[in-house]
């Protein structure tokens, strides 16, 4: 019982001890250490310790055969253990085989390689090491067997084929090497393999065999490769050229050009072809090749072609040939521009100018037809202004350069039919067409064209051109009818009224001219009425109808009180040449001054008074001169307040104003202002006298 109780007490105390929480050690000093160690430092030290040189293993000296066999056994056991641990690591197999090879145990090394090939026969390095071991130990047949097995198992590994053929060639077995190449070619390898075969045959002067291989390779590229490369054809041709088979080389180039056609043209082929012909002194052939290529290859893909063609022409061509290549280059540039934007009419103009300078008529017509086919998509005149000059230049070219009047007429008629005359028209086209028909001595067609233009789309320029034509032909009745139509169409055109009246004046029908002027000034709306009135007045002055001229001036002054009209009226009276001309002129100035007192534009009134003053200085008396001097205004400077667009204050502005003596007498405020200025002046003089009294005493004594 005592033992049981003791055992129970011990178990209870053990359980209590397990449940007791251990005490945590308290850190007395929580300050950071003086030397801090970072993770980066730890990693760097570990790396440095890895680089420390370990002591080399002790050299083992083998003194007898038993020790050697023991060493071999232990080494083989190590290699076998490594292989057993991981059979797929080929480096272990290779190290094992190389160790056996170093001991001249070729059979064992061969066995290891065979076991490794059973594990991974697709490993290229394994095959190469195996074959190299056999070749190194002069086991030629074994090496051949290994290469045969390698190329049979992995025929797409080119390295096996290269090593195999090289080995046979080094052994002097040319036939065997050729046989290996033939087996390789059956697999249709890449380009370099074919060239290696060709170079092999060329090393042994077998040119015919090399040519046959080239033909087989070209045939292979035609049948198998979708997009064959140009350089293979070029290499074939250069091979023939190198061995002086120039006819064969030319034939190869021609076959290449025919094969690639116009869909897959390459500038490198044509450059090589041209250089071949250049070496053969066939310069005309070279030009034909370059021009053929330049006409068909896009500009962006023919930069090298242009460069070589230019160099060729500079070396062997004349000035004409060099100009041709430059023209061809510019033509390609323009073609690209118009293809990118067919409505770029400036590019068409430059292109046509180039073609006209150096091309036949059919080529020029073709380019013109292509240009005029690009009709502006919007029927607005601003979009047609540049386009219409294509037609004009086309017609002028046909008439002046090609001397084809029939085609010129067709061009003009097609252009007129194309223009939407209901929305807008071009008077220049109608007038050029009429002038062309006149040059062809076909006056009825010219009149019909101009009549049609006036009927479809009347314009001021069309009327003027038609009237000028009839004037040159001295058809004055037709001119009168045209002027009547013109004035019905545009009665506000003052120039037309004036020209019509001048025509009647030239023809001597004064009354008719005067009636035209009267009709003109009676129109309710005119674009330049001042020009019309001046022309009418000049007309009456030329006819020496002074009373009618005065009446015209009075009628004009009823409509406008402009200062220039008054001055012109006064000068007319002065130039009338009669005794009372001075008095009449002075009277006009008096009337004008009275009429312009209420005019808001004071500058015009000043202009009138200055003109009157000049008149009095030349023809007046002292009394009249004194009188006009009293009428001249005083020029004063004033200030006025400015406002910005948003209504805010923008400061002050200075300006000049005129004060007329006649207006001063009627305005007492102005008189008071003058008296104030006089008083201020007197005050300034008195202050100046008080400043220097001694000077006043001396002056009084004197």
Automatic annotation (TrEMBL):
GO aspect biological process, one term: spliceosomal complex assembly
Ranges in a coiled coil: 539-605
A Pfam family of this chain: HAT_Syf1_CNRKL1_C
Biased composition (Basic and acidic residues): 1-11, 692-702
Positions of the UniProt region annotated as Disordered: 1-27, 682-702
Major localization class: nucleus
Taxonomic superkingdom: Eukaryota
Keyword Cytoplasm on entry: no
Compartments, as annotated in UniProt: Nucleus speckle
SMART domains tied to this protein: HAT (SM00386)
Domain Pre-mRNA-splicing factor Syf1/CRNKL1-like C-terminal HAT-repeats: residue ranges: 91-376, 403-554
An annotated GO cellular component: Prp19 complex
Keywords: Coiled coil, mRNA processing, mRNA splicing, Nucleus, Phosphoprotein, Repeat, Spliceosome
Role: Involved in pre-mRNA splicing process. As a component of the minor spliceosome, involved in the splicing of U12-type introns in pre-mRNAs.
Cross-referenced PANTHER family: CROOKED NECK-LIKE PROTEIN 1, PRE-MRNA SPLICING FACTOR
Entry's family note: Belongs to the crooked-neck family.
This protein's name: Crooked neck-like protein 1
UniProt organism field: Asarcornis scutulata
